[in-house]
Amino acid sequence: MELFTLLAQGVGVAIQPGNLLFAGIGVLLGTLVGILPGISPSLTVALLLPLTFKLDPTGSIIMFAGIYFGGMYGSSTTAILLNTPGEAASIATAIEGHKMARAGRGGPALATAAIGSFVAGTLATIGLAALAPWLVDLAVQFGPWDYFALMVLAFVTVSATFGTSVLRGVTSLVLGLVLGLVGIDKLTGQSRLAFGVPSLLDGVSVTTLAVGLFAMGETLHTASRFHGVRETIEAVRGSLWMTREDWKRSWKPWLRGFSLGFPIGALPAGGAEVPTLLSYTLERKLAKKPDQFGQGAIEGVAGPEAANNAAATGTLVPLLALGLPTSATAAMLLAGFQQYGLVPGPLLFVTNADLVWGLIASFFIGNLMLLVLNLPLVGLWVQLLKVPQPWLYAGILLFAAMGTLAANPSPVELMMLVVFGVVGYLMRCWDYPVAPMIVGLILGPMAENQFRRALQISLGDSLVFFRHPSSAILLALAAIALIAPLMFKQLSKFKGDDA
After folding, report:
1. Which of 13, 327, 379, 387 has the most CB atoms around it within 10 Å of its CB?
2. What gap in Å lies between CA 5 and CA 356, rounded to an integer?
3. Pairwise CA distance, residues 25 & 61, whole Å
């Protein structure tokens, strides 16, 4: 009963005119950036961070979440019409969706993607509302040793989840941890790694790093790979509406997609790529007409798109309840909370209950907005694919510089933005993930603070982290998460050599 009361309070916050406006802007921007090639939701959130630092925190974070969900839907449009997935999670959608579009069934493909996203997103939001408070009740009993162990687990899972190499992920994380040391030590009052620059005494701005790595770095990398060749856009022919047969073949994949997407997304090492591919494989095995797969089977669009949206909502469970980001956009949402002095985790549900439950309630509204707005506007989204990409990239770089200067008017800040942009570009060229660097900057000082508190309480006993069962279990899980990918990699090499 308490859950329904909290959700009702959240709905009261979400339906305020200002928050409804922010939600609408978020889903429209998200759909836009999901459709435009080379632009991700994480880039867009990074770009908007310096522009929203003086706005209402609740409305801004609702908008960021809307961008996240809208981007997931928008990427399905490019996957279906261009055979170019805007996100890795839309690869499975492109396999069948583009074949449907080429056969003149692009409308039903877009419709099942939209409705499946709505159904799975709504069910996943209910799951988030039910599961997050349970995790909070568990986490409020944590001591500083438990929080430190939890952050170590976050560091390891983020390093192992993002990118193709654990070593590269750890390298990116270490760079972020080093940047987190810059500034004045809160315990001793001594400056660290400031090199006599007064602007660095307050530490490295999360906003500047995020805009540099995501907005500038990603844009430079995408622009460097642009050869002036425009992809062929498959026209949407025929009706947008699904037939009775389409509905019959879609509703079970929607439910199965949710059943796969939400639990995997809610895991500390979750994400949307794995459940979408699992959903596609499952639908192919369960199909009554498996020969249609590869020719444009609607089940191959319905299931993965439902899994995609459910997993996106699932990633917010560890973010809101424990402060653990498990996707690049979740890392940017964490930066958004940090910008307003808010720390996702169990205390957020106590100190900022209106914000948290208003955000959760806005997911229902955002999913409905995506369903109502996107299908009628599909023609507009197709026209936006014709925007000249050089203009797009130049505009992003201009807004990145102007936004950073508006938030922190300093030549040092602008110089840092350029340096971070070049670093982000090089990291992408060499296949280093950038999200762990953001996580290291945000969570590094918090982990250091909890580590010191634990040692102070235990009078310097360095084994305190292993004397408490909960922290010992979390550290053991972190060790397993670090070693397991390396073992699997070596095992695959060994099998390859035997073959």
Report:
1. 327
2. 14
3. 12
User: Which tokens go with 8?
Assistant: 């009702």
Euclidean distance between CA atoms 181 and 179, whole angstroms = 5
**Three-state SS string across 26-88, please?**
HHHHHHHHHHCCCCCHHHHHHHHCCCCCCCCHHHHHHHHHHHHHHHHHHHHHHHHHCCCCCCH
Q: What is the mean pLDDT of each run of 10 residues along the chain (499 residues)?
A: 80 91 90 74 81 85 88 79 67 82 82 89 90 78 86 82 77 92 83 83 84 83 70 60 86 91 77 78 83 82 89 87 79 85 80 88 89 73 68 78 76 88 91 86 88 88 86 88 72 58
CB burial of 358-395 (b: ≥16 within 10 Å; e: otherwise) equals bbbbbbbbbbebbbebbbeebeebbeebeeebeebbee
Q: At what angle do helices 17-35 and 2-14 cross, to 10 degrees?
A: 80
CA distance 43 to 21: 21
Q: Residue 37: what pLDDT?
A: 64
* 421 in Cβ contact with 222 (< 8 Å): no
